Amino acid sequence: MSTTIGASASLLLNYTRSGQAVLDSQPSLAQLLSEDASTGSQLPASATVALSDEAKAYLARTSASASVDSGTTLATRAANARQWFDQQYQALGISSALIDGKVAVDLSGQGRATLSAMASNAQGLFSSDESTAAATALQSRFDTAISPHVVIARHTGNYAALYDAALKYADEAGPDEQATTAWKDQKQALLDGAAAARKTPGKAPDTGNANDPVKALLGKTTPGGSLTPQTTIAAVAANARSLLDDQANSAKDKGTELVFDASRKDGQQVDFAKFDNRSLAAVALNQGAAFSLGEVRAAKAELDQRNRASVLDTLKATSGGSDGASASLALVNRYAAMSTEEKAALGISDRFTSQLVQTYQSIQATQGRLGGNVSQGLVGYL
């Protein structure tokens, strides 16, 4: 299918043998359209430019976006945005901008001014879900724009510059957004944050202000994957890397460093509370060389401590290990439930578990002959 568009004839060169025009310099659609508008030139009715499917989709997207963002007044933008939401609901077969608390419409094509109109419920045209969805999109754009400055601040300790960048972004808002309560509250929070950062160089200021978008951005953690027994060890390690990075970033924001030696009195001690045993094993094994020596040692020590405590609890639950058969069976079950990586990190071999099974069978046979309990000193397996 071909679409005829107006363009300067000087831009259409070298007709092919089939008579179809091709563009040597491949000007953008914006250039073609703007030149046509400025010069009033038109192609002959027989001249056509064949547009690809991608180009047609681009025109459709930009046209749809322009219909929403073309309003020069707040009332017009709000009315266009209201119409856009209604069209989305009809096309998607939904009735709300949020589903299960998550944004269900694509707001990426909306301008900042339009999102602000939605978020502030301009003209009273938007539901709370629609306003929340727009506010989420606005916050996401702020995070995307300011995140590079977070990296620099954590590297240099200059958090005042981070707040200055956020203030610059805030000041780029249009007059309608700047008139909203949300913008005013954020602007004041950023001013207060910048002043506090200059008084406490080397660390992020604790503004305690819920309206401070920089504080919210600094406090965000890396989204972790849902770990299951089927999750690959590489994915488990990547998740563990993210958890450690979050703690390291938190330490930097406090003007200190993350440390892995329990004997150290300075710095912020690593916290493995959110690590399951398989995650600790992934760090201890360090198969992808993603962890430092300190991280590996600390994870191995934590895993060893957890294993020892678990074995002791197992023995206590079986009459302190005096019931040899029950204690032995409980240990067999415990080690059988371990992941392959956890066993490798702890040095638990198949030979070791086989010996436990043999011990259990031996105790059962002995008890059967003697009619009593036999203690096998299972604490020695710790």
Topology:
Layout: H1 29-39, H2 53-69, H3 74-92, E1 98-99, E2 102-103, H4 112-119, H5 128-156, H6 159-171, H7 175-178, H8 181-199, H9 213-218, H10 233-253, E3 258-259, E4 268-269, H11 277-285, H12 293-317, H13 324-336, H14 340-346, H15 350-370
Parallel strand pairs: 3-4
Antiparallel strand pairs: 1-2
Helix pairs in contact: 3-4, 4-5, 5-6, 6-8, 10-11, 11-12, 11-14, 12-13, 13-15
Question: What would you say this structure looks like, in words?
Answer:
- With 382 residues, the chain is mainly alpha-helical.
- Among the domains are: 1-51, no CATH class; 72-210, no CATH class; 307-381, no CATH class.
- It has 15 helices and four strands.
- A two-stranded antiparallel ribbon has the order 1-2.
- Helix 5 runs antiparallel to helix 6 and helix 12 runs antiparallel to helix 13 (324-336).
- The longest helix is centred in the middle third of the chain and has 29 residues, at 128-156.
- The radius of gyration is 32 Å and the shape is elongated.
- The model is unreliable at 1-26, 28-48, 58-68 and 374-382 (pLDDT under 50).
User: Could you tell me how far the N terminus lies from the C terminus, measured between alpha carbons in angstroms?
Assistant: 76 Å
Give a count of the beta strands, DSSP E runs of length 2 or more.
Answer: 4
- Uncertain spans: 1-26, 28-48, 58-68, 374-382
- Helical percentage: 55-70%
Number of helical stretches of at least 4 residues: 15
Rounded mean pLDDT score: 81
Task: Determine the strand fraction and express it as a percent band.
Answer: under 5%
Described by the principal axes of the CA atoms, the overall outline is elongated
Q: Tell me the major beta sheet.
A: 2 strands, antiparallel
- The chain-level structural class is mainly alpha
- Rounded to an integer in angstroms, the radius of gyration calculated over CA atoms is 32 Å
Give the ordered list of helices and strands. Answer: HHHEEHHHHHHHEEHHHHH
* Spatial strand order of the main sheet: 1-2
